[in-house]
Structures are given as structure tokens and as C-alpha cells.
Amino acid sequence: MSVMTNRLYALFACVLLMFSPLCCSAQQQQVIYSWPMSMLGDARGSYPIALLHLAIEKSGTDYQLVPSGQVMSQHRTLRQLGSSNGLDVVWTMTSPEREQELRPIRIPIDRGLIGWRLLLIHQDNEEKIKQLDEKQLKTSLSVQGSDWPDYPILKANQFRVLGSGDFDGMFKMLQAKRIDHFPRSVTEIWPELQQKSGMSLTVAPKWVLHYPAALYFFVRKNNIELANAIEIGLLRAIEDGSMQQLFLQHFSSALQQADLKSRTVIPLNNPILPAETPVQNKVLWFDPQQGY
Q1: How far apart (Å, rounded) are the C-alpha atoms in residues 38 and 123?
Q2: Per-residue pLDDT reduced to its tens digit, 220-230
Q3: pTM, whole model, 2 decimals?
Q4: CATH classification for the domain delimited by 113-210, as one of 3.90.1200.10, 3.40.50.150, 3.40.190.10, 3.10.20.340
Q5: Pairing state of beta strands 142-145 and 63-68?
């Protein structure tokens, strides 16, 4: 057994001892998560929702998970969670500001795949993008959400990137060839490509961007009981292999399509990665050589 695995088990044991009464203390209580009922058919939400259900089940608590009522921007979602206004859990990429305002459960739910970025492009530009070198790729025009952590990360790594507050509008910019590429995570890009099948978009060959990034579950600062339940449940799911099983069930096809081992990796720095991120615990992070 590896040193990292031993450390993970030790952490699990400590948390379990500290909060062992948790399974008996929580009464039936609704927990509203940040994925609207109208989007439950969207494949991008299926894994985090399934993992949240698994974590609550493994925690032994009696929370009832309920989708939110409306579609909101990422910025508004986080504000609503922080203001105790009808949301209890969100999943989003971490940043110092988000960890200051909310309570993170520091287990990357997608094993860091949010930081493995393929390039969504217009089909007409496939050969053009393939022929670029790294410097030329950085100076070609891209887009990210202006309130996403990815935006300052790309800017800090000298990418020429526009910020936008209109998610659907970013795809339309790509369709209209106003931008050259739209970096999307391995877990996002294939469902989005399927949803936008009439827009003449494709995944660029050759390239993959990579920066260390963690997608966490977040709760309100004072919601310690829920945070502990999710953490205990995730640690138990890691220990018994059920999280790995769920991860591969949802992402093995996407990883096979991405074929990361054959791509040219452009490693990027993440200047906004919080110092508390458990980057040294290899048990928690995706390894493209192992496929998990």
C-alpha cells in the first residue's frame, strides 16, 4: 500500500472519529443542489449529482437531495449559496475567493479533469489549428466565462482570451468564427458538442491544455454538518472503490475519445490555486497513464 493511500486512510479515520455521531444526528432534511430540475437531462450534471447522492448514502445521514428551481449564472449561484437563499450545495472550480466565502470539501470530485482542456473549434479551422505551434495557439483568440477561474488562469499564461457572461453566446461566437477556439474540460466537451450538433463545431486535434484545478462541492460557511457528511461519504466511497466505479462509468468513454496520451500537452500554471489544495495526494488526482 502506498504512502499516499495510507495518508488518505488516516485522514478518513480521523474524520470518522471526530464526527461518528453524524449518522444518528441528522433528521430528514432537504438539501437543494445547484442543478435546476429543467436540466436534469443534461449529461454534464449527471456525474456530480450521482456522486453527491453516493456521498450522502455512504455518510449514513438522512438528507433528501433536491434540484434547484431555476437556471442561474455561476456568479449568481455562488452568491445565492452564500446568502442562505434556497441553495445548500454547489459544485464548482475552486479559487481563493470562493474558499473564503464558502466552505469547500477539499476532495476533487472529478479527479482534476476540470483542468484538462480540449479545444472546441469550428470545423473549418481544424487544419489551421493543427498546424499552429504553442506560441501561435496562445495568440489565437479564445473565450472563457468572465466570472470563471479559467479566465484569469489563461490570461496569466499569456493566452489571448475574451471574457463573456453569455454561455450560449460563446458557442455562437465560435460558430461565427469570431474566435478561434473555446477551451472546455474533458468532462464537458463531448456532451456540449452533442448538444450543439447543428453548429459545425468539433474538437481540435493534437492539443490539450493542462493546469492543476479542483472541482469541489461547496456549502455555506456555517453548514458544518452537511460539509462533514459529504466529506465522510466521499472518503468512504474512495476507500471502498465505489467512487472510482462511478467515475469510470461516467467518463471512460470521454477519456477514450480524448486519448490524452497521444496529445501534445501544454502545461499551464494556476496562480489562483489555493494553498490548501491537496495536490500532493496522488490518490485524489487523475493520471492519464493509468486512465483513472
Answers
A1: 30
A2: 999 999 999 99
A3: 0.86
A4: 3.40.190.10
A5: unpaired
